[in-house]
Amino acid sequence: MSEQDYVRYTLRLVGGRSVDDLEVRDLLAAVQPAGWEEKDEGPTVRFWLAPGADADGGVRAGLRRLGALGTLTSAAQEAGWQDGWRRFHRPVTEGAVRVRPPWYRPEAGLLDVVIDAGMAFGTGSHFTTRLCLRALQDVPLGSLVDVGTGSGVLALAALRLGFSPVWAMDNDPASIDSCARNAASNALEPRIFLGDVADPGLRLPAADVMVANLLRGPILELARRLEAPDGGAWAPSRLLLSGLLVEQGDEVEAALRGYRLVDRAASSGWLLLDLARKA
Question: How is the chain split into domains, by residue range?
């Protein structure tokens, strides 16, 4: 897309609200999970959507609810905005892994993952992605499937860490294209495929590890499939589940009776569950 092809939304929160409020974060994550820019220490938030994104019923409802929390305005993005976006997106380092936009150089001694995500698919900077990057480095190596791969950050980081083979799945064709481009840029070869965890006919790869950085709804759907009688045929030994708010953890953990909790990690109100399949 060209520079003018994105729409910039500006949300000015009122009533003492800020982006630290769980309701605000939940709505922002549902509308634009790739992330947002916080200004004035939280009361003002900017995010970008592709033109026509508000035609989706869920996005439209989310925008309406955000607007009820303050003042939400939108405008066609002015020429030159990508320079500002580049200043906003910087490298992210978690342990041995460094995720960087292509306009930064690699750093010696770190595993390099280059992500050119544009505006829609994630750059590694979101709290949930960083939690997953951290957790991947504490899991025994083996095969891995990244459910909801987006731009491919976690799948490519897993390959750099030594997981093999690695599958990368998403239900959005644009995300699949983004992941494939980033894989080529990194000279890495995840097994990329289009699929939806809510599709009962989809049989996921029987990987040792599954990482799913999604939202509560898709994760609960995944849990239902894992707990179904035929789920054991492909159920992974280890689950890394993120995209959750802290208060949603108990519900998700309870839905996965066949798994035990290894660890809970939280950052700025977001949660990662590390679960191991019971013997």
Answer: 3-83, 89-277
